[in-house]
Write a structure and sequence with these properties.
Number of helices: 11
Largest sheet: 5 strands, parallel
Number of strands: 5
Distance between the termini: 97 Å
Mean pLDDT: 85
Structural class: alpha/beta
Helix content: 55-70%
Strand content: 5-15%
Radius of gyration: 23 Å
Order of helices and strands: HHEHHEHEHEHEHHHH
Oligomer: single chain
Low-confidence stretches: 16-30, 254-258
Amino acid sequence: MTSPTPRIRSAIATGAAVFAGGVVLATTLWRRDLEQQKAILNETLPVHSAWWRDHAKQSGELLYVAIGDSAAQGIGASSPSKSYVGVLADHVRLATGQTVRVVNLSVSGATVALAVRDQLPRFARLEADLVTVAIGANDIAAWNPAAFEAGIRTVFAALPPHALIADLPCFHLPHNEVKVAAANEIIRRVAAEHELTVVPLHATTKRAGFRSILTHVARDLFHPNDRGYRSWAEAFLPAISADVAHRFSAVNQVSEDAD
């Protein structure tokens, strides 16, 4: 076989350099765009928080309280009402025919320890008819199993029997999924001790597959988008529908009979 001539070798080297340069440029531009998208979503944090505070002032026949982090706030959604909390509140309104006041105690960036510190004291002052808890995803970055379990035990001990707990969503990346599996084992075990219902958020988000990063995730590649939040709500819906039918349809029937 004839060896490439110096001119061919030079052309090959030039082409490889151009290709490598293009890859570097594309990666740089992608990272810059990603940082811009993160910054844009960060600007929505106070907007969403204010929206939920305003809506907490509205009256309702039923009180729905959410404990959680930025996912409960709906960061990444087109509006706070498109978060899974908003979707579930709408479902309860339709299912019961009653008005629903939503007190969203969640705080963007919250870990389990921060939920114990900041959200549980406020929760203790409320008499919630419906409670959802989705907390712990932010603990994965600095994973500490013992601290996580201690915090989960404190949270779960403060909840009423009808509270619905979500396990952690699927992160899809293997190095994170190992930690998520450990966290979810803790959540399920401690929930069982308190006879609390765990809804299958991990299984629901995993079923969407790795491609969901393109279809269910906001442009910061971390928070869910509207479609992603609908998927989160789907994890809760069977349990919350059964709970509402069991506890509130009977109340409705008694009211109708009295009329």
